[in-house]
Amino acid sequence: NKEMLLIPGPTPVVDEIYEALAAETWAHTDPRFVSVFANSLKLTKQLFNTDGEVFVIAGSGTLAMEMAVVNVLAPGEKLLVISQGYFGDRFVPLAQTHGIQVETLQAEWGQQVDPGAVADKLARESFKAVTLTHVDTSTGVVADLAALVPIIKRSGALLILDGVCAAAALDEDMQKEYGAPDYKIDLVLTGSQKAIGVPPGLAIVAFGPRALAAREARGLVGGYYVDIKNWLPIMENPGRYYATPPVNMIYAFNRGMEIVMKEDLPRRYRRHEALGKAVRAALSTYGMKPLASEQAAAPTLTCFLYPEGVDDLAFRRALAAKGVVIAGALASLAGKAFRIGHMGNVTGEMFSQAIRLMGETLTEMGHAVNSEAAVAKFREVYQF
Ligand code: PMP
């Protein structure tokens, strides 16, 4: 009986992926490994439908953020950070470390950024690039790509999309046209540990043609490991050497990507949409309130405000003792809310159980609720 790791990443890892991870470590130049690596890159290109290049290297999502930023922006150039929470904000010090001039547009926690404010900002000033966090993991707010991509692209800026809490659960098609032929996402970044369902350890970045051209036009990049120019030959032919790839993580990633692609992307996206709706509907019956409105709520995780009088640590500890691990909330929401991930290779059965155990825990803590009704609500909404 495995623990149910329902934090917003890392997410539960299925046995097939653990088996891949535990396989014998081959030489990174062994043709058998090279073909696994090449296959995982091919599948990653399909995931983002990019006609550019993908980079999969040892690291975490933050390294992927840094690779995205430093390869397209030179010191002194201007970046607009659109932030809907803690992870959006992370781009600010990250870019400043590299001497990039940063301005921010912040939404109130739990709200989506106002497209009108973005349009105004971009009409008044020009930026080389704009960062947008597809789902901010601190708030459970999803960015409105349909509204924002055309506004950002109309300004001529490059669009960097942080897909850490979205890739493989929400559509991030890089050749999709958002209203005009060249209104496309230029760069998407993620990590292995969220909706892809692989343990943490890989930074994944997809550069579209305009982003690749921006790197080409740029001089020296302030970092050796992060410079995509050094990685390009390897991603084109993974038999070449630049820095030793994490062989076993690549086995696991390849298996994870096979699982993602086999499910079929549109179906995987619909499953996450349905799961998010069902978790919110079910837990709302306990008096827990999603921070984001239903229209702004992410399919991958929800930040719930506790009902009056529930102690955060006591609740999460008691629940963990029953085998369900959820996460606390960040910054000013700490103690007042919790976050639950509903992404990756998870099942409706898992959530039926987790929702029941959450209800039992609340009841044991003196906040009597009806677990059976909540599970029934979940099953009614999660038609998958
Ligand atoms: N961006 C988002 C949206 C995230 O959720 C996270 C991690 N929670 C990161 C970036 C940073 O990724 P990592 O922790 O893997 O460095």
Automatic annotation (TrEMBL):
The modification N6-(pyridoxal phosphate)lysine is found at K194. Residues 27-326 form the Aminotransferase class V domain. It comes from the Bacteria. GO terms for molecular function: 2-aminoethylphosphonate-pyruvate transaminase activity; alanine-glyoxylate transaminase activity; L-serine-pyruvate transaminase activity. Keywords: Aminotransferase, Pyridoxal phosphate, Transferase. The keyword Signal does not apply. It holds the Pfam family Aminotran_5. Substrate binds at R339. Its EC number is 2.6.1.37. It is an enzyme of class 2 (transferase). PANTHER family: ALANINE--GLYOXYLATE AMINOTRANSFERASE 1, AMINOTRANSFERASE CLASS V. Belongs to the class-V pyridoxal-phosphate-dependent aminotransferase family. This is 2-aminoethylphosphonate-pyruvate transaminase.
